Amino acid sequence: xxxxxxxxxxLGAALVLTTGLGFGQADVICGSLTGSTAGGAGPMHLGSxxxxxAYSIGTTSCNVGTVALNWFQSGSNRHPLIxxxxxxxxxxxxxxxxxxxxxxxxxxxxxxVCASCSPVCGGCCSQLGVxxxxxxxxxxxxxxxxxxxxxxxxxxxxxxxxxFSTAGQTGTTLFKRLQVNQDDIxxxxxxxxxxxxxxxxxxxxxxxxxxxxNNASHRMITVGAENAFSGGWYLNYDGPTIREEPAIFAWQxxxxxxxxxxVDVPNDGRFWVGANATDNGDGTWHYEYAIFNxxxxxxxxxxxxxxxxxxxxxxxxxxxHSGEPFDTTDWTASTGNGQVVWSxxxxxxxxxxxxxxxxxTLYNYRFDAPGAPVNGxxxxxxxxxxxxxxxxxxxxxxxxxxxxxxxxNPADLAAPFGVLDLTDVQAFITAxxxxxxxxxxxxxGVLDLTDVQxxxxxxxxxxP
Length: 464
Known about the structure:
Layout: H1 3-19, E1 28-34, E2 44-49, E3 52-56, E4 58-63, E5 69-70, E6 81-90, E7 93-99, E8 102-104, E9 127-128, E10 133-136, H2 138-141, E11 147-148, E12 178-181, E13 194-202, H3 204-208, E14 216-226, E15 233-237, H4 248-254, E16 259-264, E17 270-279, E18 285-293, E19 300-306, E20 311-316, E21 332-336, E22 339-343, E23 361-369, E24 373-382, E25 393-401, H5 422-433, H6 449-461
């Protein structure tokens, strides 16, 4: 069975089991990323201002659920929202290079891009029928009057205020649109780079049904000829739309060594964490991590990785624009207690607009270290408040330098190493109950009572 068919079979079974699609729920996905044929068969080139160029990606939505999807325009916050992003894959990393504002939906046609369609009406409707698709051209998604800010949206619930702020406002060529610095796509500066377009839908009834983790799709992009008149490069699509996978999956497609992990925050949304380790060929390894926030409203304000003796610590984010109120100050990194920690340096109560990994954005973290990769721990520090009893952080297993993978004995699983405490107990329980081989203390590939016994004996023995 090929990868796409296997994935859809597993996904379909999981959705039936966990979200009850068979019992009547809407489920919107991005069925295709589209563009313009004016100068390039890809994202639409809308003009430049200095070294920045505005583009727009067209999108086609599909309702793969079993009931009609709400698409009410006037006086209502019950219509889907659309965002688009661009990324560059180069030097072993994926980096986000552009964000758009939010396109507010206003009318659903009843077409058949994804499947046979059970139309709600014969034309422009306030719902999208089961199996039906609705196209928004690149020109329409780039129309400034219908674009609103991201900060008003709770992507975990699909809720937003109506009317949205800046409705009807226009501005310069770049205003609200997908903005790309030409240095980021200049073929002479990026000769081996790959580029990815991404589109994501957010809808209240889709999120309420628990079907919002499949709403982002991506499509590869190539850079075409330079347009000397308006500046910048035309862009072309390269291959079909990869449905229900955000752009971070293209990093794994480009380098199968990339490890991707879904991180689902209780009562919130999902992050995707990508990690990779490559041999520098000089006795050191390069460690590359990316956090993509698909739809977490709580966002991320810190990221920590188990590592010692690191060098060349790096960070990359994407800046908001056109009046989005979020701070764009880069995160700072610190080392100590067996960890590298990146942080925005504040908390939600002090500055709720601080720079955080908010929905629809991807941030990068990197360093070099002498240790070869082994399984270790990374921790996402959640920025916004949760419900009572919700965690303040999420811990996952990623490749880390070997020297940081453990401590004084097999029970010393979490920083600070050299000390056995509640943190180690929590790390073992989380790994064991989650099927994570970090808890496979006897190394036989099976989590069983033997691992529990080894942990208990090692913990009671203590550190020297």
